[in-house]
Structures are given as structure tokens and as C-alpha cells.
Amino acid sequence: MGILVAIEGLDGAGKNTIVGKFHEAAAGRAMTITSTSFPSYGSSVEADLAAEALHGEHGDLSASAYAMALLFALDRRRWSQWLRRACDEHDLVLCDRYVASNAAYSAARLDQGPDGEVVRWVADLEFTRFGLPVPDHQLLLGVPPEIAMERAQGRADDDAGRAKDAYERDADLQTRVYRSYLDLVDAHWISPWTVADGDAAVHAILDLVP
Fold first, then answer.
1. What CATH number has the domain bearing residue 113?
2. Structure pTM?
3. Residue 132 phi/psi, 5° resolution?
4. Nearest to 70 by CA among 50, 97, 94
5. How far apart are CA 4 and CA 118, in angstroms?
6. Lowest CB count within 10 Å: 4, 28, 87, 183, which one?
7. Is there a contact between 209 and 91 (Cβ–Cβ < 8 Å)?
8. How many other C-beta atoms are found inside a 10 Å radius of the C-beta of residue 111?
9. Is 58 contained in some domain?
10. How confident is the model at residue 153 (pLDDT cuts 50, 70, 90)?
């Protein structure tokens, strides 16, 4: 039985890059690893609807923090059985974004803390009602908002098909989301957390694998 690790952080924090580092390091330790990312754009209607809403479509859908969180949660629900099988078959399963993303963004949008109504709602919806597996550990990439936003802007400038969405364009929201993540860490929300970046983050998590 492997462990499930959620990798969290702002857009531009380097989550995709760090997943690649995990795969390289795991190969050197003869460790089996698999990964997925959320939202699963291109393979989930819920994820694609959420993306379209954040780019100005579907009327006032994106104005509702609960509606957007529900779409992201429904997207993850499709992967529940896959995640459980993956944990049975691999030493380490990584999620590039997981349930804490929903909690952090929703709390930031509604100006609530880690013990607020929307955070409790997210946990109950995804873990209890939808039956998603609880992560064994959560990694927050400790990249501050100003650096993450600069990276996200550079990524958008380099890729004409990767225009920033409404969340990414909102600097104030990104700052609040980062604070929400730190609040979740301090509250030990759902499971243990590590705050790190780069090789230090990779080694800290790989050392947790039995």
C-alpha cells in the first residue's frame, strides 16, 4: 500500500516541475510512482466548464465560490477509484492539486478561516459524500505570491494558448489564497503538511515512503 501526497500551491508555484523531480528521484530509489493533476482539463466536462467560467463564459457562474468549488469537486470525484487503485499498486501517488486547493481558494474568496463554513463544506463534500481518499501527506510549495504570479505571467506570455484565467489575474486573490494555505498548514487540516520547495521538498516527501 502506497501513500497519497497532495502537492499544493499557487498558480506559477512550480507544481508541474516538482512532480517531474519526484519521478526522477523515485526512479533512482527503485520506487514506483504515479501522478495526476487537477483540474483534469480536457478529460472532464466539469473541469472544462470551470475553466470556461473563469474565462468569462456561462454568465455569472464564476461569481459563486460554492458553484466553482462544486465543479472542481465533481471533477475529482471521477478519479476516486483510480486514486485508490493507484495507492494499491504504487509506493507513491502524487496529486498536482487536490482537495486543499478547493478549501484554500474558497476560503480566500469568502474571507473565511480554516475553521470556516466553506472549508468544512469542502471537506464533507469531497471526503465524506464523494468518498475521495484522504491524503497521507500534503506538500505546500512555499513560493510567495509575487514570485508565483511573475512565473504565471511569463508562462502566459510564452504560450498564446495559455491565457491567464480570472483567478490568476487577481493578484489580491492570489495573496489571500497563499495566506489561506498557510492557515490550513497551521491548523494541520486533514493530514500532516510540509512547507518546502525544490529538492528539499522532494527529499522530505520521499523519506516518508516506507
1. 3.40.50.300
2. 0.93
3. -65, 140
4. 50
5. 24
6. 28
7. yes
8. 10
9. no
10. confident
Could you give the 3-state DSSP secondary structure of residue 56? coil
> In terms of residue numbers, what domain contains 25?
3-40+74-206
Buried residues in 41-80 as b, exposed as e (16+ CB within 10 A): eeebebbbbbbebbeeeeeeebeebeebbbbbbbbbbebe
Tally of domains within the chain = 1
Q: Which residue has the cell 505546500?
A: 140
Residue 111's region, left for phi above 0, alpha for psi from -120 to 50, else beta, is: left
**CA-closest candidate to residue 45, choices 24, 79, 71, 27:** 71
How far is 92 from 208, CA to CA, in rounded Å? 10
In the structure grid, which three cell numbers stand for residue 149, read together? Answer: 504570479
Percent of the chain with pLDDT over 90: 80
pLDDT digits 0-9 by tens, 161-185: 667 888 888 999 999 999 999 999 9
Extract the runs of DSSP E, i.e. beta strands, from the chain: 3-8, 33-37, 92-96, 137-141, 193-196
